[in-house]
Amino acid sequence: MSGLVTLALTAGEPAGIGPELCLGLAARPRETGIVIVASKALLATRAASMGLDVKLCDWQPGQRPETREGCLSVLSVDGCVSMDAGRLEPANSHYVLETLKTAARGCLDGEFDGMVTAPVHKGVINEARIPFSGHTEFLQELCGVDRVVMMLATDELRVALVTTHLPLKDVSAAITPERITQVTRILAADLRTFFGIERPHILVAGLNPHAGEGGHLGREEIEIIEPTLARLRQEGIRLTGPLPADTLFTPHWLNDADAVLAMYHDQGLPVLKFQGFGRAVNITLGLPIVRTSVDHGTALDLAGTGRADAGSLHTAIRVGAQMARCRKAANQENRP
To answer: From CA 8, how far away is CA 125, in angstroms rounded?
Structure first.
């Protein structure tokens, strides 16, 4: 699975640390081709304010991206009206979303092998009166797919979610046989396609404490989760559960698992982020494109200081490139 792959990297919220994390990539040569999708003026302004000597090269489709130290390829997007580090500006929201559209469309058109996203600020986008719940849902709509799956991963642990950005009071109603079935099928299929795991073993968490305690602490496990998992096992998917979430994340279970499927956001992600914050990657499964992201937010207080940790971005790029290569290899094997 060798060879150069090209990833689009969106710089995220202009006031946050995304632009400088992107600029930091120029500090060393790169094995993966990276095209920064952002305002070239924003990148130049941030570089100048931080005393960074980076050559920003305009990129055109079909060109080989710069991989030399000190140079970055940029696909410039207009519309960034405020470039001040640490100061949010709602008027930048349309520009931020345009960078995502540009990168995603480039992936769909075959110009890029995948996309990596630096953090955006959901609050300021909504302040601009643009409904936005996150990258995952935005890319789902843009790519026209019925269901996507959010999965965060470190080298040791993968956690996917049945529900994502929902208020806790709405989670139970969203745990339906249809949703569990769709999410599980996507997770199993993409673990094969993007990670080369021929028959992945997935641990499934229950919704309630102690996985419902035999119905005494909730009946979702008995009435919804268990029957759905039984049907999925008949399709050949290796599933264990539903398991109590408070003991699932232990070596006894994890040593023989390829991924964990949690029922809701804060059931699975606190464990993963405690285990690997700063070196984890956010992955969107179920898309027709490769998409990875950092595991942190915009960090407005660090923007422009040079103290932001780029570890998660490097992980997102490395995993995105691995996924792209794995998919290329799978496509070549499936060709007649």
So the answer is: 22
